[in-house]
Specification:
The protein is mainly alpha-helical. It is about 60% helix and about 0% strand. The chain is globular, with a radius of gyration of 11 Å.
Length: about 80
């Protein structure tokens, strides 16, 4: 998740260590959110709601949601 977000935003690996970082402050606007949604779906093989990407307040919120989707799909 952090790697995908980092690649989308052009942040080097390890640059997203603060899970409380606000997605808007990191530069996640509508275009970055769409790219991130597509990247996560391709890498994880689970559907990711664009709405969730756009409305997640912080990195950890997005990670929690996508992790739950991934675990549900794996069950």
């Amino acid at each position: 998740m952090r790697r995908a977000l980092g690649r989308t935003l052009g942040v080097p690996p390890g640059g997203l260590t603060d899970g409380r970082a606000g997605l808007r402050q990191l530069g996640v606007g509508s275009m970055a959110a769409l790219e991130l949604q597509r990247r996560l779906e391709a890498e994880l093989g689970v559907p990711v709601s664009l709405h969730v990407v756009l409305t997640a307040a912080v990195v950890d919120d997005l990670i929690d949601h996508v992790t739950a989707q991934y675990e549900q799909a794996a069950a």
